[in-house]
Structures are given as structure tokens and as C-alpha cells.
């Protein structure tokens, strides 16, 4: 097994993140709250809160980090515009992808780490969490505009350096930066174009 729920918990505890473990589903839930000026994002209940799930799959050989139902497209008049925006975002942010459940309308940002037999390191987990947080925080205005108008306007992206975000968000973003950002994570994952990072 490449990694375990216990190892994920250790990484979370070392990062001082508050989380809940659901062993029966092989998942860890962690919540992040945003300040009003930090992002336009609101959860389906209108709160400045984002729940992330870290899930083990394939007997620990795959780790997925995602924000379930980050956006609800149930009543969206033009899902095509949202999907077009997602495609552009995926080109701008490495690792991030978006899933749309056509039946429920759930639109979910996520990162999947395929470990196979390799061990997971804390840097990989931190960067994956940071990537989902950044995608939601930065691109929420674009998705909401596309949902309401059917128009994709990439100029609406939230500024990259907002006022100081809440402690837990700041902490995970700093951990992500310490991991070297998305380019470094790609090296950790071994994207053929770059040499691996020395341990």
C-alpha cells in the first residue's frame, strides 16, 4: 500500500489543520473559512466556508482532494459556459480539474494523485489541498458570472494576493508554497519533462 489513512492524519496534524476522520469511507474532511475580502466564494448555504475531502482510493495507491458540490449548477441556464471556463482554468492551473455530475448539478474542483506503489509525502498533500483552495478562491467570480450570464469573462479572476486570509487558509497556502508550488509538485509526481527533486 502506497499510503494509509493514518499517514494522512499525521500530515494533517503536523500542519495543525482541524479535521474529521471517517474511517468507514477512507476519507478525511477539513473545513476552511474565508474572510469577506478574501474571495467571493460562498457555499450552497451562503457561508464563506469550503469543505475539502481527502479520500484514499485503490487500496492507498490513489489520493483525491476535492471540494464536493463547491458549486451547484442545478438551476444554471447555461452549463456549457461553466464547462468552458473550467477548461480555461485547467489550462492555467496545473493539476486542477473539475467534475460535473449531470444529474445532481454538482460541480467539483479536484486534484488526484496517482501514487501506485510510491509513498505519499506531506508536500504532495499540502500542494494538492492548496491547489483546490486557490482554484476556488481565485476563479469563483468567473464561474458565478458564467452561471448567471452564460458568458465566460476571465478578467473577473480574484486577485492572486488577497488581504491576509484566515489562519488555516494562510497556513495551507504557505505549506503549498514551501512545497515549491504546482511546478514542484509536478516534479514530485514525475512529469517526464523535469528531473525529480532530490530528497
CATH names the topology as Yope Regulator, Chain: A
Shape: globular
Give the tally of structural domains: 1
Low-pLDDT segments, ≥5 res:
162-166, 184-199
Walk me through what this model shows.
The structure is a single chain. By secondary structure, this protein is of the alpha+beta class. The chain has a single domain, classed as Yope Regulator, Chain: A, CATH 3.30.1460. Strands 1, 2, 3, 4, 5, 6 and 7 form a 7-stranded antiparallel beta sheet that branches. The chain is globular. 32% of the residues are buried.
Summarize this structure as a short list of keywords or feature phrases.
single chain, alpha+beta, 7 strands, seven-stranded antiparallel beta sheet, Yope Regulator, Chain: A
Furnish the topology, listing elements before pairings.
Elements: H1 5-14, E1 19-22, E2 27-33, E3 49-57, E4 62-66, E5 71-72, H2 79-92, E6 97-100, E7 106-114, H3 122-149, H4 167-178, H5 181-189
Antiparallel strand pairs: 1-2, 2-3, 3-4, 4-7, 5-7, 6-7
Amino acid at each position: 500500500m502506497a499510503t494509509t489513512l493514518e499517514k494522512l492524519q499525521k500530515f494533517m496534524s503536523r500542519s495543525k489543520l482541524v479535521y474529521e476522520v471517517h474511517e468507514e469511507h477512507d476519507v478525511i474532511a477539513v473545513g476552511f473559512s474565508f474572510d469577506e475580502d478574501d474571495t467571493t466564494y460562498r457555499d450552497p448555504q451562503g457561508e464563506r466556508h469550503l469543505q475539502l475531502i481527502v479520500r484514499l482510493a485503490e487500496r492507498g495507491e490513489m489520493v483525491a482532494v476535492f471540494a464536493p458540490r463547491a458549486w451547484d449548477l442545478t438551476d444554471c441556464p447555461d452549463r456549457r459556459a461553466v464547462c468552458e471556463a473550467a477548461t480555461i482554468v485547467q489550462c492555467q492551473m496545473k493539476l486542477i480539474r473539475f467534475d460535473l455530475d449531470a444529474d445532481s448539478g454538482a460541480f467539483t474542483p479536484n486534484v488526484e494523485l496517482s501514487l501506485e506503489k510510491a509513498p505519499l509525502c506531506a508536500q504532495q498533500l499540502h500542494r494538492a489541498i492548496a491547489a483546490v483552495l486557490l482554484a476556488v478562491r481565485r476563479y469563483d467570480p468567473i464561474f458565478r458570472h458564467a452561471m448567471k450570464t452564460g458568458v465566460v469573462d476571465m478578467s473577473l479572476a480574484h486577485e492572486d494576493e488577497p488581504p491576509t486570509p484566515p489562519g488555516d487558509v494562510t497556513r495551507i497556502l504557505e505549506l503549498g508554497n514551501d512545497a515549491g508550488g504546482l511546478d514542484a509538485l509536478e516534479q514530485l509526481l514525475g512529469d517526464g519533462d523535469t528531473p525529480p527533486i532530490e530528497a
